[in-house]
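Tip: read the tokens left to right.
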């Protein structure tokens, strides 16, 4: 993908639902308007839907899941983080949780690699250190970045 392509963050309106009419520009993998499904009997299947990776602090897990529902209902494929180590493994020593967090962060970067765009769930505009790193990583790949903040 050419480096001259502009990458940026777009606000998503909270009152009218998530944007369903998002334009689809060309993409190296073909995903933004060109990625098609498997060929069956010599005829290509319908294009795959947009693949969205949701990013945000695990403190907003409930909001991320709600956004994932809306994105899915809008016809998009959605991937998001699922593991909150402080919640799911509170008895683990901190050094063990830190090791797993690093591995989960790497796994989430692979989800960003697969995505056509990322959607940052940031109630109140909060973007923590990990989420900021995910945004920077997505922008380095020239992935479109949208924000969802119910307060904006």
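Filled-in amino acids:
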């Amino acid at each position: 993908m050419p480096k001259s392509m502009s990458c940026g963050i777009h606000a998503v309106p909270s009152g009218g639902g998530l944007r369903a009419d998002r334009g689809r520009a060309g993409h190296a993998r073909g995903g933004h308007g060109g990625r098609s499904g498997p060929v069956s009997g010599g005829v290509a299947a319908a294009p795959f839907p947009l693949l969205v990776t949701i990013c945000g602090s695990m403190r907003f897990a409930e909001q991320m899941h709600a956004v994932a529902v809306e994105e899915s209902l809008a016809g998009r494929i959605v991937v998001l983080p699922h593991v909150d180590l402080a919640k799911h493994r509170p008895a683990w020593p901190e050094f063990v949780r830190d090791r797993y967090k690093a591995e989960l962060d790497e796994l989430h970067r692979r989800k960003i690699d697969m995505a056509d765009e990322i959607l940052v769930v940031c109630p109140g505009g909060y973007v923590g250190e990990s989420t900021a790193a995910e945004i920077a990583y997505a922008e380095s790949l020239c992935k479109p970045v949208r924000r969802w903040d119910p307060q904006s």
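The chain has four helices and seven strands. Residues 94-114 form the longest helix (21 residues).
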